Amino acid sequence: MRILDPSFTILDNLDRQSLAARVEYCGRVCYKSEASIDAHSAGPFVRRMLQRQHSSVFEMAMLSLDIRLRDEAQLAALFARQPRFLQISLPGPDKTRLLLTGSIRALRDFLQGEQDALRDALGAFLLARHPLFFADVVPAAAQADADIEIRKLPLAAVEELPPALLAEHRFLAVRFVVNRAVSHELVRHRRCSFLQESQRYCRYNSERFGGEVAFIRPLFFPEGSPEFLLWQEAMAHCERIYLKLLASASPQAARSVLPNSCKTEIIVSANLGQWRHMLALRTSQAADPSMREVTIPLARELARRYPTLFTAAEHRSQ
């Protein structure tokens, strides 16, 4: 058995890679197959996920668009459709200009909805730039409306938005290495997107995992204390039973004996406004100490990067 410390990594480096690379990296965390990533693997991975309808991986790649509509009636029609999971803001008093940020999944869902001029224009724009993701939901003959202007908003421009818009349109993914109890709490934040290491598919007796189960060091018991030794004994016992079950059972069956202390990796993606809300809750004195072990340093790092948004979260963490 391995005992690991909890940690987090802000995946802002992914924001500078292609949409396909982002999807592949996050998706492979579920299967712990990151070693399979190479210069040519992203496209085939995306196509497999589309074919299998594994839509959750497409929540990890975001696009921000600056859109100029023909008139205010088009804006009213857009809101009347109540688009799901798209962040839409008016950056100024002009009600024909809007900022729209959404994941590949949210945009695909929108493009399969009711047909209108905006949907057609958006479909033509996305098909021309990202055919890998949209060729199956946008007709090849899709025509852009000359009266609707769409341009991609680069990450640098998103970072320069005023605080209120920055909170809505800057999405950030964080990779946590935590125990299963902490991950159970993270997934309660329903406005976020998640991809998590899958005990259904990961076979921990394989060479890829060193033939052993990894556990997160318990915050509650000092190492070497009687309580820590009891915990260590319990984890070793669970590991022995799990590995024995794998001789005749599938990983999804054998995992039933694995405890909350098991290490898991989970990617959480949300806009900065949602991160601010989550961290205000999960850094407070009332939060689980194991949760605070990762959220307090995360709040401090985000406060350093975005002081206009996260000063309050950092203050609450003291």
UniProtKB/TrEMBL annotation:
It comes from the Bacteria. SUPFAM superfamilies: Thymidylate synthase-complementing protein Thy1. GO terms for biological process: dTMP biosynthetic process. GO terms for molecular function: flavin adenine dinucleotide binding; NADPH binding; thymidylate synthase (FAD) activity; thymidylate synthase activity. InterPro entries: Thymidylate_synthase_ThyX, Thymidylate_synthase_ThyX_sf. This is FAD-dependent thymidylate synthase. It comes from Desulfobulbus oralis. The lineage of its organism: Bacteria, Pseudomonadati, Thermodesulfobacteriota, Desulfobulbia, Desulfobulbales.
